[in-house]
Design a protein that fits this description.
Largest sheet: 6 strands, mixed
Oligomer: single chain
Number of strands: 25
Structural class: alpha+beta
Length: about 350
């Protein structure tokens, strides 16, 4: 630990540091050596802590473990100062008087100070163990916290300068989905009306697809879907079993959403349902067309998953919104008798 009198000394000038400590504390040489060993180690590198947080998830970051791993006794801590919290990141902690926060960081230069003076060892552990961070919404950008711990040791005041690596694990953001029911006549094509919206993808690593599953009646789908007008950046795949998948591709999330919106515009009639000849009837709710908007997170770098749909901790990295298109299909005149 570093005493205030020597924390800024150049480690290459031990004689000057030694003289200053002697003068400050009016110490003899043998005692001064002990003080320097206790408060001015120039050959010890603090052990950085690591906290893994899932995107958008409030998480206790482990301040108490950070102190323990660096041989700092919680009972000796009187103040913890934390900087490096990204702007708009939310933090909070609990004291014996109640919860402090949630508070929003104003930037990495902001210092969050936790006053531990006068608290018992148990209370200090509880406070440090409650410090929680909620990352910036939809971001998976890692950051490093500077954690300075003011300690009292043998009547001397020192500061432990520690660091905590915060690794944000990307997760899929839930999309939204709205659909409208279909009223038509057997054999008469009608455009599907639906809208899909993905959330604000700050990490630009999510892709949204839409899966359509037609109901099976008497062993075959009740109709077909076609997409006659799709262009660049859009694919519409027929899997030949009543299942169809719409994908959009672009390097930027905003462009992907624009392509999706344009393709699903009902005025364009880009997805058309045609009931099979001779079929009529009502298929309501889950018995109708099942539509699933699927957001898949494709993490990169040290957050790359073993496969595209599983996170580092094994959590799913897809989110799905499901809706149903009820079908009301009238018989055509040729099916009716005189």
């Amino acid at each position: 630990r570093r005493a205030d009198a020597c924390r800024d000394q150049d480690p290459q000038e031990p004689e000057e540091a030694l003289l200053e400590v002697m003068e400050t504390y009016n110490l003899t040489c043998p005692r001064t050596i002990n003080i320097i060993e206790a408060f001015c180690p120039t050959d010890i590198t603090p052990t950085n802590g690591t906290s893994i947080i899932a995107e958008d998830t409030p998480t206790v970051i482990g301040l108490e473990s950070l102190l323990t791993n660096n041989s700092v006794t919680a009972a000796s801590a009187t103040m913890v100062s934390i900087s490096g919290i990204p702007s708009d990141t939310i933090y909070q902690y609990t004291t014996s008087s109640g919860t402090v926060g949630p508070l929003a960081s104003t930037g990495e230069d902001m210092v969050a100070e936790i006053d531990l003076s006068g608290l018992s060892p148990g209370q200090i552990s509880n406070v440090l163990g409650s410090f929680t961070i909620t990352p910036i919404e939809h971001s998976d950008s890692d950051f490093i916290l500077d954690v300075n711990v003011t300690v009292t040791d043998g009547g001397q005041v020192g500061v432990e300068e520690l660091k905590l690596d915060v690794l944000l694990q990307a997760v899929a953001d839930p999309p939204s989905l709205e659909t409208s029911n279909v009223n038509t006549t057997a054999g008469v094509a009608v455009p599907l009306v639906l809208s899909v919206n993905s959330s604000d993808d700050r990490d630009n690593s999510e892709y949204t697809s839409v899966r359509f599953t037609l109901p099976i009646v008497d062993g075959e789908p009740v109709g077909t879907l076609t997409a006659p007008n799709f262009g660049d950046g859009v694919t519409f795949v027929d899997y030949q079993n009543g299942t169809y998948v719409l994908n959009v591709t672009d390097d930027q999330a905003a462009n992907r959403e624009t392509l999706m919106d344009a393709f699903l515009d009902p005025a364009e009639g880009n997805i058309v349902f045609t009931p099979r000849d001779g079929y009529s009837g009502d298929l309501v709710g889950p018995a109708g067309i099942v539509v699933e908007a699927i957001s898949t997170e494709y993490a990169v770098g040290n957050q790359l998953a073993p496969n595209d749909a599983v996170g580092l901790d094994g959590d799913p990295k897809t989110e799905t919104a499901t809706s149903f298109i009820s079908l009301f299909i009238e018989p055509d005149d040729s099916q009716c008798g005189d």
